[in-house]
Structures are given as structure tokens and as C-alpha cells.
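Mods, move this if it's the wrong board.
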Amino acid sequence: MTLKTTLQTLTIATALGASLTASAQKVKAPEGGKQISNELIGIFFEDISYSADGGLYAELVQNGSFEYNPTERDGWGAGTAWRMIRPGHSLGMMMPQMENPIHPNNPTYMQLTIERVGHYYDYDGWTGFGIRNDGFDGIAVKAGEKYDFSVFLRNADSKSKEVRIVLVEEKREEGQRHTTPTVLAEVTITTEGSDWKKYQATLTASADCEKANLQLLCLTTGVIDVDMVSLMPEDTYKGHGLRRDMVEALEGLKPKFMRFPGGCVVHGGGDGFWNTYRWKTTIGPKEQRRGLKNTWGYHQSMGLGYFEYFQLCEDMGMEPLPILPCGVSCQGTNGGWGMKGQAQDVVPMSEMDEWVQDALDLIEWANGDATTTWGKKRAEAGHPEPFNLKYLGIGNEEKITPEFEERFKYMYNKVLEKYPNIIIVGTAGPGSHKGNPDFDNGWRLAEEIDLPILDEHYYEPRDYFLNNQQNYDNYPRDRKTKVYLGEYAAKDKKMLDALYEALYLLGIERNGDIVTMTSYAPLFAKKHHESWNPDLIYFDNSRVYLTCSYYVQQMFGTTSGNYYYGDVATFSDGDKYQGTSCVLNTEKGELYIKVVNASDQPKTANIDLARFKKLPKTAEVITISGEPEQENNYDAQPIAPKTSSVKVAKQMTFTAEPYSCSSIKIKF
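Not the wrong board. C-alpha cells:
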């Protein structure tokens, strides 16, 4: 056995949770169990359907850097999401400029020329020409909450100016021609000098409002440059700039890892290498990050960048799983998915060292100390301790062509040469099923190079998950390469879809020695901006909407363990519509029995707990149930977990109600 193979074997064992020591275990696993991955349930975040800007990233101003442009969407430009306002018959103009910007990565800013200021009493004494931003479908604020405003300003004419910053609610009463504005919060700042300077203030909302807007009104005539306009709620998740309720929804899943930033976002989607996500331009001060056209048809400000991704993983106790491009673009490039068999772009091999270096620098940034070049950049950003990166993904759903294989192997070997303890996750291409040429070639390549983990993806009608619960039973047990099911979902969001996903997940738990990780996809979608359906969590500016599939993922995430017992729970008259699993978490000292019944009749499961010692008298039961075609949506949330209890005995039965998924938690 070579040193390389030995290291790979050790890292795979670590990935499967074999590193749990006896001293860390509250209970000893009885005989008859099979050790499985304790990282089975994770999440996959991709900026699709406005999941980042306008979503998880708590920034309330849209296009605050004025970098929107027509290459992202027809009709877009620097002024998108902005408009001029002239209260009191003020006069002026706005004009995008690019001369002497704050930073070359953010070259566009807005220049305001104020020719006349006025006074209009209906506007509560507002004066001055200005600009207005309505955020992402409005700016939602809450009474008494504080919002941190910031902006970069420069007096283009070297003349100091007063600028009034106002949060406004505008209402139109029935029969009224014009809206009536109400000031929710305001502050006035005074600009100084002729160089770019950052100004900050705090606005406290006086009332709740779902569709407020932010206005910058110049009270002094002259010329002023404006850039990087920001309004952030102070109440973000752990103060780290992410929307609290959305992260708390993720917390509820108890995920063990997070894959990011994509997805097709990683390698430029259908736009080629010019639009490839480069992690180095997403760290550092926000004004120095480079925005990017989003694969899904909008703009990424990169306010949610690699630092924030890693910080979120740390905050939630997840392993980070960043995905990097490997010199091969999405096969939809230069013609879309209709040409996916012939339109793959590749980096010349003579240029591959640049992409390899990006991977090596990322590992150093995440794991190096402050004496290293990239570790120092992380420390200077506010995180002196390493992030302790364990996993690194290379590639996403690329067609497994000879060009891909050559570049993947080159990058794979170079990374392991310098960092042999990093666990590399590869890709099985698009449409990961046996018989698909990319799938078969992906597995052939994985076995050839002893790849630790291979990422499979598939989205299928609900019946696929019902009829293929034994899928991973047939995988070779002697394979060194384990499976990461990185993207999957039934193609609807009804209760029955979630139950069939639950049945499939029972099969994955049963094969947790083969499958090391899973993540449902996509994760988030914003109301009126859905690029893909279904999604796990929907949201608008004020709340989140949890699907039936969310509650299934939550159940499996909160009942994960490291030993599987296949003979503890069985149905006396079950068929493919019923399933069970039994998982022991030795670290927590908890046993979880899951029972799924996707039929229209009650079904009884027999439970044998004879091998487990010191059983409690009662156990908590969580149940998700509903009608098969019910769904949680923006209008109604009929499906939610219910809590009850059962008496515990060495031999016991559990009756599963129709169309239900239940978990029994036995705490030793």
C-alpha cells in the first residue's frame, strides 16, 4: 500500500466518523450495528432564485455599488433599482461614472449634479435633489429596530455638502393621485474633502413597513459622487450580516456540512470562463470585491463571499465544502443546454497552474496561520484562527470528457501533493445514474485514482424515489470511493413527494457506509423570483416558508448517528410504501427509530430493543403527516411536526398513521 493510498484511506475513515474515540462516546454500541457516516445530512447553498442578494445576505439596498449592467440582463445598467427624486421642485441629474473609482474591482459609481434645492411642504420639509432605492421588492423594516447605513461619498467640486438620509414609507389612499410620504427614520451627514470617504450612521425605524424606500437627498448645490450605498439591519445572525430567520431555518436542519457556492455558479454556467466564480475576488472589504453576472440571470454583489461562507459554517458547527472550478466550463456554454454535448470550454493545459494555485491558496487561506501569505489575509479580515478546512470539491456536473479527465487529474494530484490530508470530492457529471456515459466515466475515473468521494446529482419524479429505495444496496462494498449525493429532490413539493424522499433517505441511512453525505437542492428561493422548483425553503422580505421536504430533512438531520441497526424495527405487513431505520448516536447517547408510512392505511411496526440496556420509561415522538397532495406554500402552512410520547419496552409496537413520517428518540 502506497503512502498516498494510506493517507486516502485514513481521510475517508475520518469522513465516515470513524475518528470518534471511546472517551467521546456516552454509550457503547451493542453488537449487530454497522458504523455509518455521522455527516449524512448537510446543506447545499447556491445563489439561485435570489438566495444571496435579496435573501440570506441581509443587505437591504439593491445595486448599492451601481455595478448592474446589460450583460447581466437586457435593460439593466448602473441606475437599475435607483431613480431620481426632485422634492420641492429641486433640479439635478444623475450620471454613472468610472473615473478614479474607490477600487478597480468596483469601477462604477453615480455622480449627482445638484442645480437647485427646493421646499415642498407635503414632503414634511424635505429639500434637495436626490436618488431613491426600493431595495429588493421593497425594504422591510420593523419598529424600534436599528439599521446601519453607510455610503462612500466624494465632493467632485471640492465643496462640502449636507446630505439627508431618509427611510420613507409612501402610501396612496383610495382616490388619491399621489402618494403621501411618511418619514420612518432620518439622519443628515456633512461631506468633507475631495477624496472618497466612508460615512456611517444608524437609522431607527419608527414603524413597521413592508415596502419602505431609502432616499439620499443633497441639500447643497454642486457635484457629488456616490458609491457603495448600504443599509443593513443590526439584528443579523450572530452579528455577521446574514438574515437571522433564514439562518435559523438552516439551524433547524442540524446540518453537518455546507457545500458552496454552487452548483452551476462555480464554473460560469452558460457564459464561459469570463464568468467563472473566483473566490479571491469575494474576500476583503466589500468595496474591493468584484461583482459578477449570476448564472441564473441577475447580479452577485459578493457581499456574501468566501469569508462569510466559512464564518457561517463555523457559527453553525458545519464542515465547509467549497467547490472550485477545474478548468472546464459548464457544458451549456456557448449555446445553452441544447448544445450540451458539444459546447464545453476548456482551459489550455499551459494555463492550468493558475487554477491549481487558486485551490492551493484557498487551503492556505482557510488553514494557514498568520505567517502565511493567505492565512495573513484571513487574519486581517478578523479571523486569526484557521477555519480547519477538511473537504475540497473540484468541479461541478461537468461532462466527463477526455479534456475534463486530464485537467481534473492534474489538479487532483497537485493538490494532494501539497496537502495530502485534504479530502477531495469529485463529480459524477450531470444526471448521475448508471448507464449515463458521464456517470459511468465519472466512476471509472474515481476508481482509477482512488478518489475519496464522488458527487452524484439527480432530480426525479416522486416515483423514482419510491421505486429505487434499494439503489445503494447494490453498490460494491469494497470500493474506496464513497458517495456524496450532493443534489437531489423529487420534482414537486407535496406531502407525498416528501414521504417518498423520506423512504429513499431510509435506504441511504441503511447504506451509510457507502454514502457519506447528502444535501437536498436547491436550498432557497425568493417569492416571485423562483428560478427552479421545488426548493427546500421559500422566503419573502419578512418571513420564511418551510416545505414538507424541509421537515423531512429536519427529522433526518436531528436524528443522525454513527451506528445503524437494520433489524430493530420492521413492519409485519409492509411493502414499498413503508420503511424503517434505527440509528444510534453514541456521542449523544440517543437512539433514533424512524418509521415512514406512505400508504392510506395505518401500519404497525414491531420494535425489538432487547440489545439496548438501561432503557427509559418513555420516548419522544416527532410526527409529520398530512394529505398526500397537501403542500406548504406562501398562503398556507398546513404541514408541521407534532410532538407526542410513547412508553418504551424491550418489545414494543408503533402504529404509523397514514401518510406520515415519525421519529422515536430514546435517550439513554
